[in-house]
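User: I'm putting together notes for a lab meeting next week and I want to include a structural view of one of the chains we've been expressing. I don't have a solved structure, so I'd like a prediction I can at least talk through. The sequence is below, exactly as it appears in our construct file.
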Amino acid sequence: MQNIKSILSICVLSFLLLGCQTVKEKTDAIVEKENKKLSKYIGRTSAELKIDLGNPDEDYKNDKGNLEFIYRTKKYGISCERKFELNSNSVVIGFISKGCF
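Assistant: Thanks for the context. Below is the predicted structure for the 101-residue chain, given as structure tokens.
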């Protein structure tokens, strides 16, 4: 009886560990896809960014004096925030994406 419980516990634990790895792989793939999508804006102007994504929900100057555009959306009740940093020439030099898929 003890052996059956041990074997059953090992099987359940194995399935859980494999399931976690699958979730991690899917999450990594989604993040990679999002980064690839947003990377195309690096080097483009704010006008091009606005043509594709519309006007930002918020914009402000950061500590470095660069302009930041923030776009917020919600999908399945999960908030998505994309920030783009623009230099003094209004060219995108970086981005950050949180909660987007």
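A couple of points you could mention at the meeting. The mean pLDDT is 83. Strands lie at 58-61, 67-75, 78-86, 92-98.

User: Perfect, that's what I needed.
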